[in-house]
Structures are given as C-alpha cells and as structure tokens.
Amino acid sequence: DTGVSQDPRHKITKRGQNVTFRCDPISEHNRLYWYRQTLGQGPEFLTYFQNEAQLEKSRLLSDRFSAERPKGSFSTLEIQRTEQGDSAMYLCASSPMTSGVTGELFFGEGSRLTVL
Amino acid sequence: AQSVSQHNHHVILSEAASLELGCNYSYGGTVNLFWYVQYPGQHLQLLLKYFSGDPLVKGIKGFEAEFIKSKFSFNLRKPSVQWSDTAEYFCAVNAPPSGTYKYIFGTGTRLKVLA
Q: Is A42 in Cβ contact with B106 (below 8 Å)?
C-alpha cells in the first residue's frame, strides 16, 4: 500500500504524559499537513510543511505541540504534558507540490488519542 | 480569516432521493473549493474540486457541485442517492492569493441513506 501511513493508530495515555505520532506521506509528496478532528467537527488545521520547512502553524497549536519533518520525508507530531482536551483524532495528509494549491490532499487513517 | 459553513449537520434520506448539501465560505478573493467524503471506517478522500472554468463540476460516484461566486456557495448534489453513499461529507476551501497552502474544512454533514 503506497498511501499515507500513520502510527500508532490508537494511543491511550494518562494526563501529563508526552505522546508522539508519526506520519509517512506518499513518497513523492512534498507537502505534509497535520489536522486534528474531534467528534462532530471537521478537520482543524494544525500545521503544514513543504519539504522540511514548517511554513504555517495554527494558533490552535499551543507550546505543548511540536511538529518536525527533519529530512522532508516522514513527520512527527509531539504533544507534551497531555490534557484531556487533547483527546482527538490526529490526521496527516500529503500533497504533491506540482499540483499547486489546486491539488488533492491524501489523508491517512489517523491516530486516535485518548487522554485519561 | 477564511471559514467554511455547512448548515446541514445530519441528513437522512431514502434510496433514490435527491441530495443537496450546502456549503458557504467566507473569503472575498479567489478560492479553490473541495468536497471530501469519509465512509465509515475509512479515511477522507476527495469527491470533487473546483479551481477555475465551468462552475458545475462533476466528481466520482455521480456527485456534482456548483460554484456560485455571488453567493459564496459550493453546494454538493446527487440526483439519486444509494445506501452506499452513507458517509460524512466535508466541504473545504483554500485561497492561494493569500499565499497559503492551508485547507480549511467545514464541520461536516453526516448523511444516512435508508435502504
């Protein structure tokens, strides 16, 4: 399967712990996006990368959240000192730069976080 | 700031009924518009998109959408729904002249089609 891959698919943690999610985009895709989705809501933009550069970051992304894409391939999203309000599905998507802004986002299955 | 509104949160239809889901966006400049679908247990996937040209766009599985610039709308339609169309539908927008490649999504419409 050559789609967007996310790991882990499910994570249960206690409040105050740190968690990290990994996303492997489709191999030729230069842009990588992180979104958060809670029940009854649409995907909320968190951040996106073009190659290894983080070009935009939402105000939703507090100081406890950090994302990296060190070699322009896979990306990690870390949440430090988790809170119950962080419980959500974290979605990764990728897009080829050649498609410009009209291109399709290819989504992964998501990583579901539950903070107890 | 850009935003997307989907007014119908839940829609229940019988098979063969016609479907129209509303989507309005708030941005005065040039926009690209998308409809995504999420079938139960699956990831989000693109149904159709509009970026220029004919404002009536056709997508997969018999869906179409019409861009009406004067109304800031991009409503999704299907003449005759099937049970397999049961899913959640999301409208999305991006605005390239603003210099961002960020996509903004609406809150979604959950469609249930009764067999």
A: yes
